[in-house]
Structure formats: structure tokens, C-alpha cells
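Input set for joint prediction.
Command: fold jointly, output C-alpha cells.
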Amino acid sequence: MKTNSKAAFPYILWVLFFTVIPFVLVIYYAATSKDTGAITLDNLANASRYFPVLIRSVYLAVIATAICLVIAYPLAFTMSRSSKSVQRVILLLVMLPMWMNFLLRTYAWITILDNNGLINSFLTELGLPKIQLINNSGAVVLGMVYNYLPFMITPLYSIMTKIDKSVIEASQDLGCNGWQVITKTVLPLSFPGILTGITVTFVPAVSTFVISGLLGGSNCFLIGDLIQQQFLGNEYNLNYGAATSLMLMVVVFISMGIFNSFDNDEMEDSMI
Amino acid sequence: MENNVIVRLENLVVKYDDELILKGINLDIHDKEFITFLGPSGCGKTTTLRIIGGFIDPNEGNVYFDGKKINGVPPYKRQVNTVFQKYALFQHRNVYENIAFGLRLKKTPENEIHKRVMEMLELVNLKGYGARRVDYLSGGQQQRVAIARALINHPRILLLDEPLGALDLKLRKEMQIELKKIQQQLGITFIYVTHDQEEALTMSDRIVVMNGGVIDQIGTPQDIYNEPVNPFVAKFIGESNIVAGLMHDDFDVEFANQRFVCVDKGFGKMTPVDVVIRPEDIKFGPTGDNTIDGTVETVTFKGVHYEIIVDVFGTKWKIHSTKSAEPGAFIGMSLNPEDIHIMHKSDAQGFSFSAPANEVTGDENKF
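C-alpha cells >
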């Protein structure tokens, strides 16, 4: 035991300096006044005025996560049932965009969606009117799906490769048609992967500011943008920014709590 | 019973990537029998089973169930259930729900499900295990759940794909007896796949010996053991000495430079044949009239018997006996007429199965 805890020492140090202390600082700044340094709830009260922004962020993140799930789930299932070489090729295609910088990937979408971008110049060429494709929430959701889809595919794929072919054959053997095989066997067995996928997609999506900043413009102002403004923008206000961060953190913690309770329910079900 | 064919396989051919897995399988399976597909890995036994289960469609040939062609009918529409090699239990369901699965799909009333699950738990000796998680069960218990899960659907046929392969020897023997008992109790057809000849001999009404995608022999365990049709079957089912012989006439065979009386006939006069002699059928003692004489080479204690290798002019003979012998001793081996089994000289194909090093191969024994 002793050697084990010693081996973790570098990480403990890391967590202390880069997770625990910053977290304490966030709480400290959120709870103190910018001017006097006295303890106050004003920052939190101010932050809560931006509750609609938070709701919009959650709303868009939920939509993006749902779209990711709908696209990723059938793909992951098909992949897991394919031959090893096909699996490798698809996995490569899924991961390929990830090798490029996140900002670059998002900028690339501007050149596609912009009013003078790829799609609109093509439409003009054809003599058709331009369409507003950028600076709206649709573009933001698209950016989220594009950036976070691999995060959804990977955990689903990895859990589905663990579902043995014979378990699927056993379901067919015992009376499942194609659809029932999915609902009765594949879905419950891949449930932990769905939870992981949702978690790793939803959390970055709900707190993004790059995607909304680049693709959403001023029409799609999200909680991430708000926080970024307080720390890096003109309205520099550490205390207010910290309070907003705390609000977002609470939302993330609550959603994690909900996801994990699903996971536990599932475990208990199987223990009856 | 003999005429009551439940499954007929007609000229089944299966190819994977141009490799022939089944080369024309013809077989009638009778209702309520325990039939075993026996053969080495890659012989096509599991493929044949999977065709009956509906998991593979043959490239050529037909499958009939109760006289109706069932090619292309999906597994869930067949009155057949399978016990899979690796159990394939649903890890997310407990024992009770695993067993109830098939009935739930058929929307069976809850009280009937309960009644039948309880019956099944009793049948497979798992009373009181309903609430357990399946991944906490031992291999043997998981196997029982898999059997109960299949049988609760009252299939006409139960397919078993090497179901005891993962169990230890003692448990395997217990399960063999139990499976046979269950089969007789329920009176349904069991189609069993194994590479274990002893398992096949213990449980089966009939054995189908397969090799390289063809059926070599079909018969009762006694038939297969006592009258193997070719050296492959003889070697696969138990140990044997196989020597070249010459059939002079009915009941009159020559091998090892001796004339013997045997019980076989119908081979014609002066026909070259293969002779199979089981190691346990050979008696030995002092040399005498009509004995095959040789020098004891090695003696190995095997538990229930000694394995004695005797050198007869360069040909090794294997004896299984409760009596031991001294290495180097010159002994005489004698045979009863009914222990001499005559086979037609087989084509080269029969020899594809590699024999243990010590075993006699007929070509060494020249006239």
C-alpha cells in the first residue's frame, strides 16, 4: 500500500496545484467583493441574472449531444460487427480530424459557412440567393457535433466490441428479431458506454466558447463566452467570472449526478 | 422412432473465401434421439450445427424440418434452441431473467413464466439461484443456466455446441450424465457437437464422425467403436492398432504373417484390407501357436491400465492391460476372432488425421 501511494505522488502534487487550489480560488473570488474584498453574495446574484444564457448553453449542448448519439450509436455498432481491417479504417477516419488543431477545425467551418464562403459562393454561381448559415445557433450545434462526435464514438465502439457475437446469436436464438436484438441486448449491454459518451460530449459542449464565438457570433452568446469575457475580455472582473464559473460547475455536477444515478440503477437492476 | 425424421440435411455445401468447409453433407436426424457430431476442429461439425440453428445459410443444399424446407428461415422462427460454447449468458440480467428471456419475448403471462422458470431451475439443479447475478456463478452453474434458458422454450431440438469444453474433467463427467438424463426426461432431440470421443461415446444414441467437411461414418457408439469404416475413424475413436491385412476368404484374414479366424465377411477373396485391433483387446503371455510374437519395448503406468509397446519385426503394437510386463521380454499376443475388425482399404483422405507417434501404420507391415 505504501509504495502505491508514493507512486501516485507526482499526480497528487499536480492535482493539488492545478485542480484543488484553483478550485478553492474560484470559490474565494466568487464569494468576495471586487472592490472591498469582503465576503459577499453579490457576484453570485449578478451571475444568476445570466441564467437564460446558461439555459441556452445547456439546451444547445443537449441537442448536440443527442445528435452525436444518434449518429455515433449505429456507426459504433456497425463498426464493432465489422472485420478487423474495416474497423481500423473507420476508426482512422473518425480520429483523423482530431489530429488537427481544434481552432483550425472550427475556423475551417467559417470558410465553408460564411456569407462569402464555400456554400454561398456555390449558390451564387448557380444564380441562387445566399443563405444565412453562420452566426446562428444551428452553426454552433454543427460545430459542437463536428468537434465532439469522436468523443461519442470511441467509448461506444469500445464497449460494443466487448459484446460477444454469441450473445447476439443467443438473443436471436431465443426469439429476438433484428430490432429486439438491439433493444433487449445491445442497448442494455452498451449502456455504460452511452453514459460515458454523453458525459465526455456534453461537458465540453456546455462550456464551449470557441465554437460559439467563431460560429455563433453575437447571436449565440453562451455561458462559456460570458466567462471568457470576464477573465480575458474588456469587462475584466475576476470575481464575477468566478461566480459564473461556479454556476456552470454546479450545472455540470448536477448533470453528472443524474448520469451516475442511471448507472447505479442499471447495476441494481442486474443485481435483483 | 427410427422412421421419424425431424431434420433432413441434403447435400449441404458451405464455402468461406473459396475454402470448402462442408463438401456435401447428407444426414437424417431422428426425433427424440441424442445425436453427436464428432470430429477434429475444422471438420465442419459446428458449421453443420449452425446451419440447423439458422445462423449460417448453406451455399448449396437444403435443410428440412418436419419435412418443410427451412433454408433462410431466421433463428427466431425455428423451433430450435442453442446452448452456446461460451454460454453467452446476458450479463445484464440475473439468472431468473436469463431463463425467462424467451418466454418474455413471447409475451407469456407472468404466472406461467414464474412456474416454468421454477421448473427449469429445478431441472438443472439451480433451485434458489434465481436472484443471483450470472457473472458470480461458476462455469458449471453458468452452463446450467444456458441449458435452462434454451429448454424453457420447449424446443423440438436442442443444439449443443461443445457445451462442456470449458469445464474440468470431473464436472464434465457429471454434466454428461445429467445432460443425458435431461434429454431422456424431456424426450426431445439433442444435437451435440464435440471433439471429445469419450463424451460422444458416453451420451449419444448415434454418432456422426466428420472429417474435412464430409461424414466418414454414422452409427451407434458400439458400431463406431467396434467397426470403424476407415483408419481415421478408428484412430479418432479411441486408440487402435491398424495393420495391413489380406482377406483370403470370408472369416479368414492374414496379417502379421499369421492367418486368423475373424467374424467379418463379404470382402471377397484375396482382398487387401486394413485390420483394426483395439489395444485393450490384445491378450499376451508366453509365445505359442497362433500368437504374434515380439519384444516388449516400453511399459507405462496409466492408472487403470498399463500401456505396453511391443516391437514385432519393426512394427509397434500397443497393448492396454491391467497386467504389467518386463521391458525386453519376448512375449506372444493373442486375439479373439470378434476383436479383429476388418476395414476396406481406405483412400488417402482417411489418413489426414495425424496419428500418435507410437501407433502402428499399416504400410510398415508388409507381407
